[in-house]
């Protein structure tokens, strides 16, 4: 716990200017209780060869282990996921020893293998407690991952344009409202939305240049429960780059309980925004973790 706090103390001063959009809306989850969101709607199976950086995060509570979130390996020892995946509804950290990670596999790992999964040495978020739009967490693995197990993905830190080709992947539910994660990693292509479009539904929305990226779903292609922490990627010359990770979704119709699929908006944390802070925390040059 001391180590965890230390890590946060290192990250905190770097992030004092991080809140340029005060409160992202979340009509369905008012009060901070963000529902686990990780399942791809209208998706198709992801190829192991494309997703060698994928991570699965499991959580043990009262001796019961469950799949918690998707994650992404960005160095041989660092997994990124959503901050809400490692915090409770008050946005306080869960116990680090109750989290375990498995990397490099597109098939969902059986919960019974919890004790064989990789424990965490440290974890921290970017002052998520006070800034909900900073829904990004760093998980420092207790051991290095070898390239034959999983390969890290580099961060895309260029400007986000509305026409950037992206896809999202996760082990989330494939039917809205279900609680059973997908047994295989699913992916789907989505369209990034313009700031003007997103401002229509979220008066606090600023732009896709801040900590989050906004996506409206017209086609029904979407991320959903259980996809939280999963990668939003773009492919350049055959290589995948990490644009964002899944945060949460809401319906444009605030009275609707359906938060994934058609007529919804999904938010992703933008990794390019956090890249220099991550590099500083790791004490590596930014070029080592970016495109
Ligand atoms: C929706 O996702 C499928 C793959 O899951 C893809 O083939 C299709 O082009 C996507 N539609 C749009 C509008 O992006
Ligand atoms: C903006 O919204 C309109 C519908 O109001 C949609 O047709 C268009 O594709 C959206 N464009 C972007 C870039 O978000």
TrEMBL record:
Transmembrane segments annotated in the record for this chain: none
What's the source species for this entry?
A: Smittium simulii
Question: Which Gene Ontology BP annotations are present?
Answer: proteolysis
List, alphabetically, the Pfam families matched.
Trypsin (PF00089)
The entry sums up its family as follows: Belongs to the peptidase S1 family.
InterPro entries given in the database record: Peptidase_S1 (IPR050430), Peptidase_S1_PA (IPR009003), Peptidase_S1_PA_chymotrypsin (IPR043504), Peptidase_S1A (IPR001314), Trypsin_dom (IPR001254), TRYPSIN_HIS (IPR018114), TRYPSIN_SER (IPR033116)
Provide the protein name: Peptidase S1 domain-containing protein
Molecular function terms, GO-annotated? serine-type endopeptidase activity
Signal peptide stretch: 1-18
Q: Which UniProt keywords apply?
A: Disulfide bond, Hydrolase, Protease, Serine protease, Signal
SUPFAM superfamilies in the cross-refs: Trypsin-like serine proteases
Q: Which domain of life is it from?
A: Eukaryota
Q: Where is the Peptidase S1 domain?
A: 40-283
């Amino acid at each position: 716990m001391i180590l965890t706090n230390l890590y946060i103390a290192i990250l905190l001063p770097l992030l004092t200017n991080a809140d340029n959009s005060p409160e992202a809306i979340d009509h369905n989850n008012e009060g901070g209780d963000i529902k686990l969101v990780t399942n791809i709607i209208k998706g198709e199976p992801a190829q192991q060869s494309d997703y060698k950086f994928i991570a699965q995060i499991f959580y043990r509570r009262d001796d019961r282990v469950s799949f918690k979130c998707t994650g992404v390996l960005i160095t041989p020892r660092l997994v990124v996921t959503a901050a809400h995946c490692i915090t409770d509804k008050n946005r306080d950290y869960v116990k680090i020893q109750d989290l375990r990670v498995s990397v490099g596999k597109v098939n969902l790992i059986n919960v019974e293998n919890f004790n064989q999964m990789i424990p965490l040495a440290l974890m921290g978020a970017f002052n998520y407690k006070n800034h909900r739009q900073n829904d990004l967490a760093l998980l420092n693995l207790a051991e290095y991952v070898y390239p034959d197990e999983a390969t890290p993905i580099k961060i895309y830190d260029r400007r986000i344009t509305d026409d950037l080709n992206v896809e999202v992947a996760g082990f989330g539910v494939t039917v809205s409202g279900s609680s059973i994660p997908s047994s295989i990693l699913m992916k789907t292509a989505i369209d990034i939305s313009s700031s003007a479009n997103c401002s229509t539904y979220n008066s606090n929305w600023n732009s896709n240049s801040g900590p989050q990226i906004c996506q409206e779903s017209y086609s029904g292609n979407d991320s959903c429960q259980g996809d939280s922490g999963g990668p939003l990627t773009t492919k350049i010359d055959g290589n995948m780059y990490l644009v964002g990770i899944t945060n949460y979704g809401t319906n444009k119709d605030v009275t609707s309980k359906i938060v994934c699929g058609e007529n919804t908006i999904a938010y992703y944390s933008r990794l390019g925004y956090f890249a220099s802070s991550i590099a500083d925390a790791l004490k590596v040059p930014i070029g080592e973790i970016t495109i």
